[in-house]
Design a protein that fits this description.
Length: 375
Amino acid sequence: MNQNQRFLSLDVFRGLTVAGMILVNTPGSWSHVYGPLLHAKWHGCTPTDLVFPFFLFAVGNAMSFAMKKFDQLSNAQVLGKILKRTALIFIIGLLLNLFPFVKYDGDGNMVMKSLDTLRIFGVLQRIALCYGIGALLIHYLKPKGAFIATCVLLLGYWAILYFLGGSDPYSLEGHIGLQVDRAILGEKHMYHGEGIAFDPEGLLSTIPAIGNVVFGFLVGRFVQQNRHSRNMLMKLVLAGTIMVAVALLWNTVFPINKKIWTSSYVLYTVGIATLLLSIFIWLIELKGLRAGTYFFEVFGKNPLFIYVMSGVIVKLYFLFRIGPENENLYGWLYGHVFQPAFGDYPGSLLFGLFHVLILWLLGWWMDRRKIYIRV
């Protein structure tokens, strides 16, 4: 099996995830979003809640191929590469939070953004930390040790929340991670989308999220070692099913929850990701059905860059004002183009799909010119 075939399922899985991230992040109006494209209000899991952990799973899966090169390097060189990549992704996330570096004040004047209120964490920052810590665990403890360490982290996170979280440890106010982030980051540097200063990509909840990367690595390694045989596929389906079953059982005492990234949520999302990847392997590698895969493959070849560009485009929309009411370009496009033509909910969905297509065209242009930006 050649290199391209071996990577195709992963590229399609990763590309589907990136397309999903763009779609759920850019509805025409947050007041008109179909239920499956919204996050669960608190406990529970919607299709949208699968997107981010799937991306972390794909990061781990890709690591199972990339980390083979580490065997030829010294420990110091490996440490340097891991820390450099971690820092670079984290800094890009910080810059994306700060972009476009200016904003409108209450009087409509454009002023520089202040570092005093810069949100420190975010999606890219979590990807960076989970990659970095996951890679260190895998390299220095080896796969078996990394698996054991991840299990300890998941159980330890449960214990921390249960014993230190007060009378309602899995609630917004009772989550100990809230106090940790407030003490270390400060409220001004946290996300405020929940009505209070609360960061869904905060410090403490990053601990279990490492599991999505490590398990993704282990699945990718297992696939490589066993090739794309039917026996391998059956074992993969069994593993995914067991993880989902264990997660649902654990959910009875430790609720599945994305916003505090519970350990049951890790197992649940890893299980579903494993099952979905199994389907892709069966269809693409074993059945040879490759029609339509190129659309997602494009996203999978430049995933981080395309995700960053999706954020850049949205932020620029809010920077530019248009029309007699001085409306931002994002709201103007939905209110004057998509909503009048298609209605509230369909228009909002098509607005998101339009941006998926725009970013696909960017990825297609890069692929045609063999431009692949690796961070």
